[in-house]
Design brief:
The protein is mainly alpha-helical and 174 residues long. It has helices spanning 8-11, 14-25, 32-38, 44-56, 59-70, 76-92, 104-109, 116-128, 135-141, 147-160, 166-173.
Length: 174
């Protein structure tokens, strides 16, 4: 059985009404600037929908997403969704490793961010794409003080598959 409990008072909350309205109207038709602002929306469904629409727009989204990803003053969730979106664009776009316009170039830039969750998600995105130019950054993140960062950097090095990473991995394990 599925039992749903709700409160009439909660349903009248203005934020919930705005979210329901956004979902009902859809977001595909919205301007890029509005989609970027929705990456920090409190509702995960809205953030993800904005991320997917921005990813569908491809190359036109790279620069604005990179700005948010690099901005230490931007909301953390907006930065994380920007990183994930750049990874999606890289995965489904036609980019050559080393291209100046490669979406993952901006992701590499945040591997030294002061926020450990941003470093962790950057390592995750780079590893998911097995992005070989990120080898150096991932190798250094293997020794990060945050376990999540170490985990994603280690997994990323494994996906890149360069045997030269073995000493880093053995040192981390030791």
């Amino acid at each position: 059985r599925l039992i749903v409990l709700s409160s009439d008072a909660k349903e009248q909350h203005p934020e919930l009404q705005k979210t329901a309205q956004l979902i009902a109207q859809g977001i595909k038709h919205r301007e890029t600037s509005e989609l970027l602002s929705l990456l920090s929306h409190p509702d995960m469904r809205i953030r993800q929908r904005a991320q997917f629409v921005l990813a569908d727009r491809g190359e036109a989204s790279i620069q604005p997403l990179a700005v948010i990803a690099r901005d230490a003053n931007a909301e953390q969730m907006a930065r994380i969704h920007s990183l994930w979106c750049l990874g999606m664009i890289a995965r489904y776009g036609d980019y050559q490793v080393g291209d100046a316009s490669h979406p993952l170039g901006a992701v590499i830039e945040v591997t030294e961010d002061p926020d450990p969750e941003i470093r962790s998600q950057a390592a995750r995105v780079l590893g998911d794409e097995a992005y070989k130019p990120a080898y150096e950054q991932l190798s250094s993140l293997v020794f990060d003080e945050e376990p999540r960062v170490v985990y994603h950097a280690t997994m990323g090095l494994g996906r890149i598959g360069d045997p030269a990473a073995t000493p880093y991995l053995v040192a981390m394990i030791a």
